[in-house]
Write a structure and sequence with these properties.
Blueprint: H1 12-19, H2 26-77, H3 86-95, H4 97-144
Helix pairs in contact: 2-3, 2-4
């Protein structure tokens, strides 16, 4: 999977720096928002792609194990219709280490996507707050005669 940016490895301080507003340097904040939105938007897209890939991998593992376990159970219980149930097969599949690994990978990717999405939402709120601050500053400048 080609990535435009490196894998999401942001520390808590990276996130705080991206979404915080330095009131002493509002102009730098205005300048940083488009870049931060782009960087985190790409990270969010990469995370969404990873979720899709992990889901696909999980489904492939599940399908492969289903057929394998069905054949194993049929051999154990005979081929009489009704002796091997869906619940028996699914239970074996979900206890298999390969399935558990694929499921954990999917869960981790979903969590990474949720974290990245939260940062993007915070950046949008930051952008909106900066727009409001700018409007307030312009209104104050007009009323004070500057």
């Amino acid at each position: 999977m080609p990535a435009i940016l490196p894998e999401f490895t942001a520390s808590d301080s990276d996130v705080v720096n991206a979404v915080s507003i330095n009131e002493d340097d509002i102009m730098a904040e205005y300048a940083s928002v488009p870049h931060d939105l782009m960087v985190w938007g790409v990270r969010q897209a990469n995370a969404a792609e990873s979720v899709s890939a992990a889901k696909f991998a999980l489904e492939r593992v599940e399908a492969k194990l289903y057929f394998e376990q069905r054949e194993i159970l049929r051999a154990e219980y005979g081929t009489k219709r009704g002796e091997v149930t869906e619940a028996m097969i699914n239970g074996k599949v979900r206890r298999d280490g390969e399935y558990e690994d694929a499921r954990l990978d999917y869960i981790e990717n979903e969590a990474r996507y949720a974290r990245t999405r939260a940062v993007c939402e915070a950046l949008k709120a930051k952008r909106d707050m900066l727009i409001s601050v700018g409007a307030t500053q312009r209104a104050e400048a007009r009323t004070s005669g500057f």
